[in-house]
Amino acid sequence: MSRFFKATLFLLLLACAQPFAGVFDHPLKKEDSAGLEQVLSSMRKTPVVRGAFKQVKTVKKINREFISTGSFTIAGSDGIIWNMEKPFANQTAITKKKMVQRNTSGSVSEMNVAENAVFNKISQTIQGIFSGDFQLIQSQFQVYYEPVKGDKSRWVVGLVPKETTIKKQIASVELQGGTWLQRKDCRRRRKSRNL
Amino acid sequence: MEPVKPSRLSRKKGIALWVLFHAVVLALGLCAAPWTVDSNLYSVLPASDNLKDVGEAEALLSGRTMNHLTLLFGHSDFAVAKGAADEFHAALQGHPQLSKVDYGVSEKSMDQARAFAHQYRYTLQNEKFVEKVREGGGAFLKQNALEKVYGGFSMACLDRIDEDPFLLSGQVFEDMMKDLSFMSRNVAVEDGQLVVRDSSKVYVMWSADLVGGSISDGSASALYAIHEKIDALKKADPGLVVVTSGVPFHSYESASKAKAEVAIISGISIALVVLLILAVYRSPAPLLLTLFSISMAVVTALSVTWTLFGSIHVFTFVFGTSVIGVSIDYAIHFFTSWKLARAGQGHDGFQVRSLILKGLLLGFMTTELSYLALTFAPFPLLRQMAVFSAAGLLSSVLTITLLFAALPKTSKPALAQVPLKVVDLLLGSCRKAFGVSGAKKWVILTIALLVMAVGISQVQWGTDLRSLYSMSPALLESEKRAMELLDFGSTGSYFIVKGNSAEEVLQNEETFCKKMQQAESEGVVGNYLALSRYIPSREVQEKRFAEISAALDSTTVAEMLQSLGMTSDSAFRASLAEQPKFITPEGELPESLGKLLNSLWIGKVGDRYYSAVLPLHVPDASRLQELAKGLDAVTYVNKVGQINDSLTRLSWIAVVLVAVAYALVFIVLLVVYGPLGAFTVMRIPVASCLAMVAVLGYLGIPFNFFATVGLVLTLGIGIDYSLFFKERGVQSGTALAISLSAATTILSFGSLAFSGFVPVSTFGLAVFLGILCNFLLSFSIIVPKNKEIL
Q1: Number of folded domains in chain A?
Q2: Residue A8 belongs to some domain of the structure
Q3: Is residue A5, in this structure, part of any structural domain at all?
Q4: Which residues on A lie below 8 Å from B158 (Cβ)?
Q5: Neighbours of A85 (CB within 10 A)
Q6: Structural domain of residue A171, as residue ranges?
Q7: Distance CA B504, CA B786 (A)
Q8: What is the pLDDT of residue B786?
Q9: Chain A contact for B115, CB < 8 A?
Q10: What is the nearest CA distance from A104 to chain B, expressed in angstroms?
Q11: Mutation target vs B (from A164, A167, A189, A194; most B CBs, 10 A cutoff)
């Protein structure tokens, strides 16, 4: 029987994130590689991770933040279920092959991931980040790493996509965690930001 | 010695006429510069009759496809594969003979696509989305946008949300990304590159178009550079695999192979002929004069072909090696008669010409009639081959009858005795073989006919294009690998849609796409690519704008802006005021969309406009044709199948042409020899043709279009032997000349049978068999009158 771990994705406001803002000044060193791989692989050992999320998208142009909350399930390499509850119900399931969405009215839309190379890449990347796949992360991103001083169990990882197509969607990703992923700060290119 | 009648044409006049003819031909040839050689594989093929209506449009589309090259650099380590592809790209980038080089996904192309989607966000929405707008109105648009704003995995860009609060551009962008520029389900993006993976390797994709499209246009240097770079990269890292795909690679290989073949076939033919002539005539004069005659024939053939066709196909060269075999025959007849006369006692060239003139002209006329028959075939390459050979042969006849006629009596050694003795032995054997009579004759005839009938019954009739081209194992493996890796799903079949304007084409396509959608839902096609899916007709674009803008009433807009926390609608209103914007296939398109649409939009050809619809992942291609039924504007194109039909139909035309050529020759012979004489001569090439067909049947070689062409030449060339025997009667000299002629012709065509190009080898083998039978059966003419003839 699978072990279930519960995690909570904490929303940290930008101000709170300030202590880690310098992670992008610390490219992953060779000597830190093994340590980071170990941290991430411990995340992978948990076959199913469930948690709550709070997502903040910041659009500077209109000076607005769009906040959504709900729960998520990460089932190893099988996929992710993103269950948004507020401001309205919306479920998204992403597997290696497709993305299925069900909206408030109950209507279901489906996208074959293989038919869209760009989305395919984004989907793989997102799954890689959430599942802590070090190999995948390293192949897709320039990796920055900064262990939290005084607390070896905590870490901060900065990721900058290598891919032009991904860069168009995501400028950088900042991950914070311990035994499991606790916070993901995804900065959109130019004027918007996801937390 | 036979009495010699003086010829009417004097030596001087003859030489002057020869010089004049060749001077004119050479001048024409010089004016035809630049002397291009076409080695494009596709230009060998005839146009399909079924495509006459859309022929030019189809040729234009095929031309684009034919120019395309795809390379995949594979390695177990992505970094190595990418490094090799980068190095290759750096080496080939900017090559003057390469265009539309496609390597990697540029940041610029993504920006362009987003800007384009924003600009046409009201008019390029897909039908499914508009249908939802129709059903749900403004409420749907609002909810759809909010899902994108709050959703976790949306590709929608929020940068211009003030102008586009309903995120319509994100919808268009997503549609564009689907299938866009990749077309293959296996292709992914990695480190800025398009890549495909198999179980052990990752392949980086590189593609380009050859400028001009054909190897003859100088693009061979680009292919040479490509091969050279690939070899260098492989040498540097033996683990690197480079998969190549595209018609230019095949044309390049065929051209290289054909050129090597021309050299080998011509070289062997000439060497053997030289040895034979030297051995028989025992002096260099006949050899040098014969080579001179052949050279003039080849120069004439080239000049006339370049003048009439503008360029010469490399396979005409291969076929043209037969000119050596044919034109040499007349020189042999001339020099055998010339040398047979002892020094100081025999004939000079003028007298020899009178001796052989009738047989020579009859032979020339029948051969030219055969070539003439070929020129009626609706197949440009065949016409070119016929013109090449006919011109060469004419030059050869003129050289012998006008130039060689000026030769004095020879004082050189007479003919070698050994060949004469061999021919005498042959004559003796043939007298015995063909001199049978009574019941024995009928038994032999019956057995021969039965054997031929069985052989003919086993013949596989028809032409299958796929069996005519055999690519090298390396190229075949490469194409298979590319097909497996990319899995474009293309069947080689497609539809061409026409209209009187670009708008009409799009409207016709939209009507047709309803059938394609139905076919997709029924599983007849897995998917399809059509221009109107990306750029609908103006009519549809107007309708879509009207429906979407109607749903954006002031309440919906106000609610949406409120949901987004926006206080002002000025940016939205100002942006909407600039709408609608319409796009046509000829409008300015982003790079990525342009690449895809370039393969679908054919454009204006003549007075009409054309586009292509590509069915993909088709389980049963035979069901495609019915999709175009009842739609006048849509033509189904299955090039391989339709060319096969055309070639098979051409084969029957060629058979009719053979019959017409035979009838004409028979009429000529009837006038010259009377009914019995004409029959005596004609039965030999007819029997030879039947025997040739039967042998092909026994060998299991399909009797295709190219074998039919061999049939025509069997008559044209083979009948000469019977004619000369008929004309010159029973004598060792004639038998020697005929044997030498047959030997040289058999050598020429026999060598073609070894060609790696199946049409050439089939043609060579057919003519070889036909000529061999003609030669052997022609001895039946020499049987004394008191013996019955088989």
Answers
A1: 1
A2: no
A3: no
A4: 57, 59, 61, 188, 191-192
A5: 14
A6: 20-194
A7: 80
A8: 41
A9: no
A10: 9
A11: A164
Answer yes or no: do B161 and A84 touch at CB < 8 A: no
Output DSSP code: residue A114: G
Q: Which residue of B has its CA nearest to A67?
A: B150
The answer to whether B607 faces chain A, any CB pair under 8 Å, is no
In a domain, A2, yes or no: no
| Average pLDDT per 10 consecutive residues for chain A, totaling 195 residues | 35 32 76 77 73 80 85 79 88 83 80 67 69 76 79 79 71 77 68 48
CATH number of residue A46's parent domain: 2.50.20.10
Cis? peptide before B580, omega within 30° of 0: yes
Q: What percent of chain B has pLDDT over 70?
A: 89
pLDDT tens, residue by residue, B259-315: 677 677 777 777 887 888 888 887 888 888 888 988 899 899 999 999 998 888 877
Q: Which two tokens stand for residue B460?
A: 């596989």
Peptide bond into B413 cis (omega under 30): no
Run of H or E including B354: helix B349-375
Q: Is the pTM of this model over 0.80?
A: no
pLDDT tens-digit readout, A104-123: 777 887 877 666 666 666 66
Q: Does the beta carbon of B190 lie under 8 angstroms from any beta carbon of chain A?
A: yes
Q: Which of B106, B159, B561 to mutate: most A Cβ within 10 Å?
A: B159
Whether residues A62 and B150 touch (CB distance < 8 A) is answered with no
**Residue pLDDT, tens place only, B45-97:** 665 555 566 777 777 777 777 788 899 999 998 889 999 999 999 998 888 88
User: Does a structural domain hold residue A3?
Assistant: no
Of B364, B321, B462, which Cα lies nearest the Cα of B754? B321
Q: What amino acid occupies position B145?
A: A
| Residue A96 DSSP code | S
